[in-house]
Amino acid sequence: MTRQIVSVVGGKDAASASTYDSTNPARTSEVVAQVGLADAATFATACRTAKEAQREWAKVPAPVRGRVIASIGRLVEANAESLARLVTEEIGKPYKEALGEVREIVDTCDFFLGEGRRLYGQTVPSEMPDKNLFTFRMPVGVAAVITAGNFPVAVPSWYLVPALLCGNAVVWKPAEYAAASAHALFRLFAAAGLPDGVLNVVFADGAATFAGLEQALGEGSVQKVGFTGSSEVGRKIGELTGRHLQSACLELGGKNPIVVMPDADLDLAVEGALFAGFGTAGQRCTSLGTVIVHESVHDEFLELFARAVRNAKIGDPMGDVLAGPLLDAKFAERFEEFLTWIEPHHRVVSGATGRITEGSPHHEFTGEGGLFYHPVVVAGVRADDRIFLEETFGPLVGVTAFQTMDEALELANRPGYGLSSSIYTTDPASAFRFREGISAGMVSVNNSTSGAEAHLPFGGNGKSGNGSRQSGVWVLDQFTRWQAMNWDHSGRLQKAQMDVADITPDLDFRLA
Predict the structure, then answer these.
(1) Number of other residues whose CB lies within 10 A of the CB of residue 365
(2) What is d(CA 375, CA 317) in angstroms, rounded to the nearest whole number?
(3) What is the 3-state secondary structure of 114-158?
(4) Where do the structural domains in the chain lie, given as residue ranges?
(5) Number of neighbouring beta carbons within 10 Å of residue 404
(6) Does domain 256-453 match CATH 3.40.50.2300?
(7) 3-class SS at 238?
(8) Where do the coiled-coil regions begin and end (predicted)?
(9) Among residues 386, 415, 390, 149, which one has the least CA distance to residue 284?
(10) Mean pLDDT, rounded, for 334-340
(11) Which of 89, 251, 390, 391 is catalytic?
(12) What is the tens place of the pLDDT at every residue in 454-481?
């Protein structure tokens, strides 16, 4: 029986303006959920509802809010397999990866459950007697969170968990094509005892969401926006929030490089590039964009990499496969456009391109009736190629060569993104020189470009974001505002920088 899903505002189902069928991309004839899409007015209403609920939620002591986060973690853990199966069914992510994604929610909760007792401020010494200075972390108010569907439950938790812990209320707009997974996660959060209106979920298309957000910002019912998605949309959201003197938390796209040095373990580099480039069918913001290989090992690496890609298992995401289908029909259409960027001077070394069919088979393919595409490796990529400069969201990786570290860094930074990066080397000097020169917010040494941990900052620079960070203690700065307090108990008005004791030194003193 097809699931029927609608928005939930203030603990109640909200009206829908239209419907959307969320389908299984591994078997596109299967409808996972029929989703009721809200209009802009419903989004704005949800923000007003959250504003009212936030006042009381902020009064709940932070350690108690931490216990709610602990309960969310235990509930997710107890429902891990069911939630992971739903993620696999709805977006085609291999089940093993989906289980890892659900584990990431648990890790996030485990980290933040104690932060309710560590939302520390400081006691600061004053320059005047009988005066004390303090700082406090205060919740921002209402956070509007808009997330993509490639990580339909883990990435939202990076926003929802710290935002709620810090005393904020949230209006969450997930991707329509991952609505069933999002609704399931919402239900788990609600079961932890969150008061109605503290967390609201609104399903809407992009236009309605943007219009509703614009209205809510104008009404003053949103104080923070979190967005995970494309650089193009992130720029528009950044412009919108900037008009209201707000800075959005933006986690955007990437063109993530792997640099392979002459001394690299090539088998390890191939394994890392395979997972980085084609895990989740290349549909991560941290997916590999281009492998930049030293000319002395370029041909050997390319041969090993191409062979690994040709032999990679693609198919039914419930099986033991490297990748399943693309997320949704719109991503399949876009990926086919990316394939047109392959130019005559390029060389496809991985075999066929395009959709996997009976007439265009792939090695040990186990899928049927889904949005399955051949993994593609393109050699001979140049620094001015579109395929080199722009994000190609899907199973497509370019390969190019370099001679010096300076050249490698110039190539790695040239696209202007700055999310994730990796270098394969056994030389510590090369690793640290790469770290110093790369523009990315995240650097791996002898590891994939993909993979986050709950206690490290996650985020990018340039086209990949505005410098905001998620995860770890660093995300607390996104969902709190610092408040300074001075308490003068001298009984008189002491003027800063004026009524300050002065001890006069003898600066002309010299040792005999």
Answers:
(1) 17
(2) 15
(3) CHHHCCCCCEECCCCCCEEEEEEEEECCEEEEECCCCCCCHHHHH
(4) 34-119+136-252+465-485, 256-453
(5) 10
(6) no
(7) helix
(8) none
(9) 149
(10) 97
(11) 251
(12) 899 999 999 999 999 999 999 999 999 9
Cα end-to-end span (Å), the chain = 96
Number of residues written out for the chain: 512
Type of residue at 225 = V
**pLDDT tens across 384-434, in order?**
999 999 999 999 999 999 999 999 999 999 999 999 999 999 999 999 999
Share of residues in the chain with pLDDT > 90 (%): 96
Whether the pLDDT of residue 175 is over 80: the answer is yes
pTM to 2 decimals?
0.95
Are 399 and 379 within 8 A, CB to CB?
A: yes
Q: What is the Cα–Cα distance from 92 to 90, expressed in whole angstroms?
A: 6
34-119+136-252+465-485 fold: Aldehyde Dehydrogenase; Chain A, domain 1 (3.40.605)
CB distance 327 to 177 below 8 Å: yes
292: Cα within 13 Å, side-chain hemisphere = 26
| Per-residue pLDDT reduced to its tens digit, 40-72 | 999 999 999 999 999 999 999 999 999 999 999
Asked whether this chain's domains 34-119+136-252+465-485 and 256-453 adopt the same fold, the reply is no
Tell me if residue 251 is catalytic. Answer: yes
Residue 486 forms beta bridges with which residues?
133
Q: Is 263 left (phi over 0), alpha (psi -120 to 50) or beta?
A: alpha
3-state secondary structure 462-502: HHHECCCCECCHHHHHHHEEEEEEEEECCCCCCCCCCCCCC
